[in-house]
Amino acid sequence: MFQTGPTLFSFRGLFGVQVDVSQSLVMLAGLLLFLSGLSNFIWVAVLVAMLLTSIYLHELGHAWGCLVQGVPVRRIVLHGGGGFCEHARSASRQQQELIIAMGPLVNLALWALASLGSWWIFSGPSMGLDMIGGYLSLFARLNLALFIFNLLPVQPLDGGKLLQLGLLRFFPQNVAMRTAGAIGLVFAVLWWPALIYVYFTFGWLLLFAPPIMLHWHMARGEYRV
Q1: Lower CB density within 10 Å: C or N end of the chain?
Q2: Is residue 57 pLDDT above 70, yes or no?
């Protein structure tokens, strides 16, 4: 697991929101490029660039959800484990629903746009754009994977937060927390055998695992998120 770590550099991004790039993100990108070897360097570099762009736009979706509702945004942080959008003040439950939902919705929109672009290139007359179409197809699949991944009902993913917010519409806070914790606990426990299966079957290593004890305490009514 990569922690947030110290900020390596910052810049002013879209909507005027400050973006802090963590040292752990640069270390992870460098490690992936180093392990890829010279023969796959360009392909891995493009994949890393696509992933970072998708994560940034995902977090920018959260930032837009804040700004459109008058919730100030302090910064977006990109790190080795993903990213997060930091509010300057707390948001109401209704505001949080839009803020959290906007991240996965951005990935879904990117999947749709990239898929349409890829389809247009491959279905039309050959114009020497096959490589671009292939990259668009890869970008589309990557964002679809991020959309599905982020909607898994575990903390601290968007799906876990949206699950609890949705339950709060029908149940008291304690019941909503315990129910969301119990559902998340099942997914968190099953995550490990699934992680091992995916690694030995496809060779993919996902540097994330939902915290089992956090969901255990939620299910027992001992923790609030």
Answers
A1: N
A2: yes
* pLDDT band at residue 2 under the 50/70/90 scheme: very low
Q: Which residue, chain included where needed, has tokens 């942080």?
A: 77
Interatomic CA distance for residues 146 and 43, integer angstroms: 19
Q: Nearest 10 degrees: CA dihedral of 65, 144, 198, 159?
A: 30
Q: Report the 10 Å Cβ neighbour count for 44.
A: 17
What are the Cα distances from residue 194, in Å, to 151, 160, 191, 200? 17, 18, 5, 10
Tens of pLDDT, residues 113-127: 999 999 888 887 656
Query: Is there a contact between 108 and 147 (Cβ–Cβ < 8 Å)?
Result: yes
Coil, strand or helix: which one is 85?
Answer: strand
- Burial label, 70 (beta-carbon count in 10 A; 0-12, 13-18, 19+): exposed
Query: What is the Cα–Cα distance from 44 to 34, expressed in whole angstroms?
Result: 10
Mean of pLDDT values over 75-83: 88
Whole-angstrom Cα distance, residue 86 to residue 64? 12
Residue corresponding to tokens 């302090």 = 74
Closest CA to 4 of 28, 25, 35, 30: 25
Instruction: Identify how many contiguous H helices and E strands the chain contains and give both numbers.
Output: 7, 4
Asked if 78 and 20 count as a contact pair (C-beta separation under 8 A), the reply is yes
DSSP strand E in the chain: where? Answer: 7-12, 18-22, 73-79, 82-87
Q: What is the DSSP letter of 88?
A: S
